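Entry 14. Structure prediction run on the chain below.
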Amino acid sequence: MAFCGICSTNRNLDRHHVIPKRMGGRTDPTIHDEANLMTLCRSCHRNLHEGRWELIRSKDGISVLDKSSGEQVMRRRYNPDLDTPSIFQRLNLAEDSLAQLFDVMAYLSDDQLVEAFNYATGFGKRSWLVQAAVLHEAQERSIYGKQSLEAIARRFEIGIRQAQKYALVWKTFFNREDPEENVNIDAIVLDQPSWYVVAATETKEPEKWLAYAQDRKQEDPRYSVADFRRDVQQANLETEGDDGHFSDRPDAPLPVVARRDCPWLRLVCVETGRLIAIEECKNCQFVKK
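Output returned:
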């Protein structure tokens, strides 16, 4: 069955010449070559011909730009060398291997139990990341932007809020052109998605706050997502304007603690229960100036 190469609908389909017929007409056979033809629905076809959209096609895929704003409407990537069936086969093998662990658990050595536990932890750590990447990719392929989330949630049989938050987390922390700028989940202890959701959806500087949560978790293993959210909310209150709305200023600077002689001061001073940066903790007898 044929589908529109932009919005994926299978209704009212036309054949679009990527290089227009007016550029060669009947004299240039490449104009009508299959490589220059693309199946589009009538609506997407009209947006291109009437100049609202610009189609950019390369060997790696296609992208559509809004000519008036320059923003990307959608993009879809291709890799003819990708062996997708083998990837899904390996995923099935991994799932079968996990199921077999239950049968042999009682026979594993102590060291093997630790190895099995670490493997299961690592596998689980990435499962929600796969879901986030899938939801973000589905949104990138849609021409409807944020309005596509309802259809995406319905297609994947999840709540629209989960679809929205997971897609945003992937876009914020993991969807960088330079891989070195992405968050390396193997290098941090925050493996639950809630840490990333709070940082991405409730703060103005998500990377800074994620690093803050990492530091707090290392300082105190009991530090929870609920504690993290309270710290974020307190910082937001401190940057709230007189009219009750948040100002355009960045989040309150997070403390960098060089000394920890004070029994109350860790990354924040907890004696008062407020988020206080070290440079704002005045006249503390425990911190040497």
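The chain has eight helices and five strands.
Filed with the rest of this week's runs.
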